[in-house]
Amino acid sequence: MSFNQIYDIAGSSLAAQSLRLNTVASNLANADSAAASADQAYRAVKPVFRAVYEQVNQAGQVPGASVEVAAVVNTDAPVEMRYEPNHPYADDKGFVAYSNVNPVAEMADMMAATQSFEASVNVMNRARSMQQGLLQLGSK
């Protein structure tokens, strides 16, 4: 596996985890948003990842696998209906629709995405360190 492949694989992971962190931020920003109906309420979004496998080339190099974002989908958890008859968005029964974002689950997802991001950065740093070591071997 070449250093370029290592950088490409780690870079795809960085891009995927960045998107994951962005969706978490969007969900947390809308965690307590109200709407006039359940159809208009904010629904949490989650990225769906897919592994992309490389083919073995003529040089016989070891194929790698990278990650890409297949889609960003809305979660299917039900929106929360709260009884608040004095709220401006209250329906005729006094209920207000709130987003289906679970802040605790989002924080756990954020911590996992951060750890994955840091692991990818460490992979890139190790590859760079190995390249520098190889260059120093050639200069002696």
From TrEMBL:
Its main location: other. Pfam families: Flg_bb_rod, Flg_bbr_C. Keywords: Bacterial flagellum, Cell projection, Cilium, Flagellum. It is found in: Bacterial flagellum basal body. Residues 9-32 form the Flagellar basal body rod protein N-terminal domain. Residues 94-137 form the Flagellar basal-body/hook protein C-terminal domain. NCBIfam families: FlgC. The basal body constitutes a major portion of the flagellar organelle and consists of four rings (L,P,S, and M) mounted on a central rod. The rod consists of about 26 subunits of FlgG in the distal portion, and FlgB, FlgC and FlgF are thought to build up the proximal portion of the rod with about 6 subunits each. This is Flagellar basal-body rod protein FlgC. The lineage of its organism: Bacteria, Pseudomonadati, Pseudomonadota, Gammaproteobacteria, Alteromonadales.
